[in-house]
Amino acid sequence: MEANTHTCLTCGKPLKGRIDKKFCDDYCRNSFNNRQNSDQNNLVRNVNNVLRKNRRILREMLAEERMIKLPKEKLSQQGFNFKYQTHQYVNHKGQTYFFNYEYGYLPLESDWVLLVKRNPNL
């Protein structure tokens, strides 16, 4: 009988059982996969953090209003990142709104923005 020369991809222990087995247990399998995906997970986590922060800033600025107009600089001062949004909406006038989930803004002239909250029934 031939000796098993396969070892765990995480800890290096000899493997017993199926010939295509790669890990000795669930802990080693999870550790391996977490290491493999850590760069991708960090990127996704960082982008999600920016999106959540942007949403929070828009929500706080709007308070109970459905829409308000304010200088773009006010958003920047709060740490709003204009590079990230969840989606865009173009209205019938051809104006493009940039959204972070249900909160969005429309760039206006002279570095002003119109903040809006999307109607949840749409």
From TrEMBL:
<protein>
    <recommendedName>
        <fullName>DUF2116 family Zn-ribbon domain-containing protein</fullName>
    </recommendedName>
</protein>
